[in-house]
Amino acid sequence: MNRLTLLDVYRWLYDESTDEPARILRAHRHGAAADSLAGTQGLHPETRGSVYFTARAGCASLRDNDIARWVTPQPGLAEFCPGRFVEQRETLYLLSKNVAGGTSAAALVSALTTEVRVAAERAGERRGGRIDPPLVLVLDEVANICRIADLPEQYSHLGSRSIVPIAILQSYAQGDQRRLPCLDCTSRVSSSACISTRTSGCVSPYLILSIASASRQLASAPPMSPRNSCACARLTNIDGTW
């Protein structure tokens, strides 16, 4: 809107009294969003400051000029459009690293990953529910770099849209509440996944108990008919210890 960039958003975050973003929202008929923002700006200074502090932390990487150039228009570079991307057979690599000093682009990586996912869902809805070609989301470092708050809730749903998420954790504990903002994220993601793979060196009592429980459930389950066999979970071990 108004051809502004994330650098303008960064500027607004350091001026808690500016009404510029609210005016822009109202000019584009987003009155509810404008009222919400105005309400936030009218909070007690300490409460308002806490909200703005959280937002500033998410945009801290924009202080790095190299990162800012990737998310602002640049002469000679085409604009990335998630809607067009999901309709094509291409690959997008989003790379960052978690470093001290607030220069990590983790928040931007998470936001862009979510935008691509939402664009894929909308494309699927236009086609009757499923996107074609299917979209594979390989979420490596999902607990550090690409944190997605609603991942457990979305995990099983995305399969019905022909969107295949692959969450990669270095350990079972990485998916706890401290890393991903959801309770017992690892268990919820693994229970929603069709295939759960444990590689060599991944040792956790919680994981062992989870595998044992799942194995007992599969062993006691009635034979699967061809009609519902696709719902059967699959446990895979790389080094052959179980």
Keywords:
single chain, 242 residues, mainly alpha, 3 domains, two-stranded parallel ribbon, 10 helices, 4 strands, 43% helix
Report low-confidence residues grouped into runs of 5 or more.
226-242
Secondary-structure element pattern, one letter each: HHHHHHHEHEHEHE
Q: Helical segment tally?
A: 10
Domains, number: 3
Major sheet: order of its strands?
1-2
Can you walk me through this structure?
There is one protein chain. This protein has 242 residues and is mainly alpha-helical. It folds into three domains: 1-58, no CATH class; 60-193, no CATH class; 195-216 and 224-242, no CATH class. The protein contains ten helices and four strands; from the N terminus they run H-H-H-H-H-H-H-E-H-E-H-E-H-E. It has helices at 6-13, 20-27, 31-41, 45-58, 65-70, 82-85, 106-126, 151-159, 185-192, 205-220; strands at 135-140, 163-168, 195-198, 234-237. The strands form two sheets. It has a two-stranded parallel sheet with strand order 1-2. Helix 10 links the parallel strand 3 and strand 4. Helix 2 packs antiparallel against helix 3 and helix 8 (151-159) packs parallel to helix 9 (185-192). It is globular and about 60 Å long.
